[in-house]
Amino acid sequence: MIWRARQHCIEFPRRPLVMGIVNINDDSFCGDGTLDPAAALAQARAQLQDGADIIDIGAESARTNREPISVPEEIDRLLPFLEKWPELSSRFNAPLLSINTWRSDVIAGVLPHGGDLINDISGLPDAFNAKLCAEHNAGLLIMHSVGQPKVPHTHVKYDSIMETLDRFFEQRLVLAESVGLPRENILLDPGIDFAKQQDDNLTIYRDLERLHRFERPILLPVSRKTVIGDVLGVPALERDPGTVACISAGMTRGAHLFRVHNVKAAVQAVKVLWAVDDVR
Predict the structure, then answer these.
(1) Which residues are designated catalytic?
(2) What percent of the chain clears pLDDT 90, i.e. is strictly above it?
(3) Chosen CATH of 14-279 out of 3.20.20.20, 3.65.10.20, 3.40.50.150, 3.30.70.250
(4) Rounded to an integer, what distance in angstroms lies between the CA atom of residue 92 and that of residue 168?
(5) According to DSSP H, which parts of the chain are helical?
(6) Quick check: pTM over 0.90?
């Protein structure tokens, strides 16, 4: 299975990729955000030194108890990082840069300046973002959710979350391909915690293999999620051990990428689990 994003071409099976999170905002739920471009670049550098394969930058928190920022403000937060990224990435082994945004106007404003992947948490309600990625040969991460981002959807109930994901990804893949985005450019994200309850999230971990029928790499955003806090009864900053447990569950069921805050712990977990599989 091939995944393409700009000049990158990655073939699976291989060791799962680790995506580090850099929040260029001041309201991250983990308190690790910064509005200082130099500080954001320093965070990215540290994560690359710890072994991150991808850096995911986002200028707006997904928290639903915060107001959305404007399109110009989001672009203004991202561009200084994008301008300095080539200098930083040249020191490492071809890391990828992911831009975590969902507004088409933002994507149109930043993709000409860089970025290999658009991490779209909107659920692709229309084809605009896919078309923009096609125009720049960028990768697109399609995440399952319900309704517009930045709006609480805790009331959503599913008869079967896995059947819902099956229908959702089937429709969105057709939509993306209809505007010229090759399927090889697409990643899938089941959207842990987004419009889902604890049982939904745990079912996704248990039955993740069901999504392999789409023959696309699967990213699990496992880091410090609410579902971990629900199970363990601990706050966000104490959820790294639970995050490693989710990585183990995901690798057992064939996940291809993991999005995390604690890159060092994730990289070590992935390498050890992969080595165990190599022994078989």
Answers:
(1) 225, 259
(2) 85
(3) 3.20.20.20
(4) 36
(5) 37-49, 71-89, 104-110, 128-136, 161-178, 198-206, 226-232, 240-252, 263-279
(6) yes
